[in-house]
């Protein structure tokens, strides 16, 4: 059986992500030979591309004018009827597909009518409007008027104004100097293409001069002006009149204009940069001269394209897990949301729930893998955000788990063994020791993540431990061996010693350790490790250090340390207080009872120091040496000599694990005497516990 993670490494394979999306494009008619709409995505495998125009996929195989260059769409021999519209790019690979933002392709064309224009006759002092006759066009235009000859342009002031909304030239009060030919010039802001209209003659009438009259507002803004968030909003207001009217602005609510608001062209133009919600509301333009005043009113309504405030991230989920994604966008009006999977509309069904910007997929399966997009839209714009869902399904696999085959631990410590195979969904785990199925006990904990924890380990815990992991796709196991060893202790270290300068000295270092460990020794002088190659020092018998004739600079403290295979040493415990304690058993019964008591004492000691470690009250105890003396010449004791040997043999294993081993059976003229020595570690240091005696 093959699984997704067997054929795809989800860390290296991934679906498309946009590097570049198409932008709106305005093309001047007749100028370029071709136009290019950009589209580029990253992904592995490398994405492929397709394009749509007004929602219909473009068949590039049958289209000789359009071709792909990478992901870019190149259009030759452009045709307004066939090429103008809304384009969208799709990037896809075997993991899924995503849609780009929508981009418009428009054509900028300026086509003034070629016929000549009639002269405009006015009286001196009269106001006049010269029409530009703006041609049909696409794109943003900029207007200017030429006076008589190019490049002499009409200079705008309080009396003359060129509207960038209508393109017309407004003269509030005509003077004799205004007589001449006027030509409207239109420039496309994007393509920089410009065109000139036919000239319009302005002549003065001879039937008199225009008298004074109140302002007549010819240029004003609509009753309702939609304004986009962050845009530059421009309001125009210009009036004809004699005398030339003065223009002023105010807000309907009486609030003063913020500092960012600018007045241009003798207050004819009100400009609000970076329009925000607080800039919306009523605005008034007042035109006034000595003959009267007129006012126009209008409102600026705030709107905003959708903008992301919360998006989702790529997700890799195990089969049967739950997917929850949520996206949120700001905007006015409030955006609506839709979800796409691989470029196709996603609907609520069975396991799939869609509510506003939230998508929930209950218990994902392999068919849910792919590229998802959250789409936020209002009447002013539409935005897309994409994320990839990878669904993982595989049997347990320990090949990527780095675990030690042999785990060493000291008696009394806690051992933790992990069982974390790569598996999707997560496996059910169990543990065996040898062939024995393990269950949780007071000392053994089987954790929910597959880990086994054993506290206060003993030699009984030595063995092979196998973790079995299984899910619906298969089963796997891994085995490691646990070795439990006794700690290494320094039983005799160097003590304060006075010595005559020039003499040699031997400093002892006695240890007790587990027989299975290789022990190495190191020495420190005033906290600094000694160089074993220094000829001033010499190791004797592996456990003692001989120092050749000393001088006064050496009259300081020396310390010894022994370390086992796991690096533990007693270097930090050498100055611990040592206390001698005795436990004495007084026997007044018969020799048989005496011996039985002695036998029970030894049995008790043997059981308490089982596996070379035991608890005597608050002490952690280990055997250092054993000495038993029996008077075998006493006929009453003869039956028990064999028993004494059995008892001492019972301690044989413990005795062999010590670097000191004195078990002696001797002939004494009378009595019986036994001694058992221990080294114990308490909560606050080391103690020596010795002399268990029967007399």
Overview of the structural elements:
By secondary structure, this protein is mainly β. Strands 2, 5, 6, 9, 10 and 11 form a 6-stranded mixed sheet that branches. Strands 12, 14, 17, 18 and 19 form a 5-stranded mixed sheet that branches. Strands 21, 24, 27, 28 and 31 form a 5-stranded mixed sheet that branches. A hairpin with a 5-residue loop joins strand 44 (444-446) and strand 45 (452-454). The longest helix is centred in the last third of the chain and has 18 residues, at 591-608. Mean pLDDT is 80; it is low at 1-8, 550-558, 567-591, 608-634 and 653-695.
What's the layout of helices and strands?
Elements: H1 4-7, E1 14-20, E2 25-28, E3 34-37, E4 40-44, E5 48-53, E6 56-57, E7 66-69, E8 72-76, H2 80-83, E9 85-93, E10 96-99, E11 103-108, E12 120-124, E13 128-130, E14 141-147, E15 160-162, E16 169-171, E17 180-188, E18 194-196, E19 200-209, E20 213-219, E21 224-228, E22 233-236, E23 238-242, E24 246-251, E25 262-264, E26 269-272, E27 281-289, E28 292-310, E29 315-318, E30 323-326, E31 328-332, E32 336-341, E33 344-345, E34 352-355, E35 358-361, E36 370-378, E37 381-392, E38 394-397, E39 406-410, E40 415-417, E41 422-424, E42 428-433, E43 436-437, E44 444-446, E45 452-454, E46 463-471, E47 474-485, E48 489-492, E49 505-508, E50 510-512, E51 520-525, E52 528-529, E53 537-540, E54 544-547, E55 558-563, E56 580-585, H3 591-608, E57 614-616, E58 619-630, H4 638-650, H5 652-656, E59 672-682, E60 685-694
Parallel strand pairs: 2-11, 12-19, 21-28, 29-37, 39-47, 56-60
Antiparallel strand pairs: 1-4, 3-8, 5-6, 5-9, 7-8, 9-10, 9-11, 13-16, 14-17, 15-16, 17-18, 17-19, 20-23, 22-26, 24-27, 25-26, 27-28, 28-31, 30-35, 32-33, 32-36, 34-35, 36-37, 38-41, 40-45, 42-43, 42-46, 44-45, 46-47, 48-50, 49-54, 51-52, 51-55, 53-54, 57-58, 58-59, 59-60
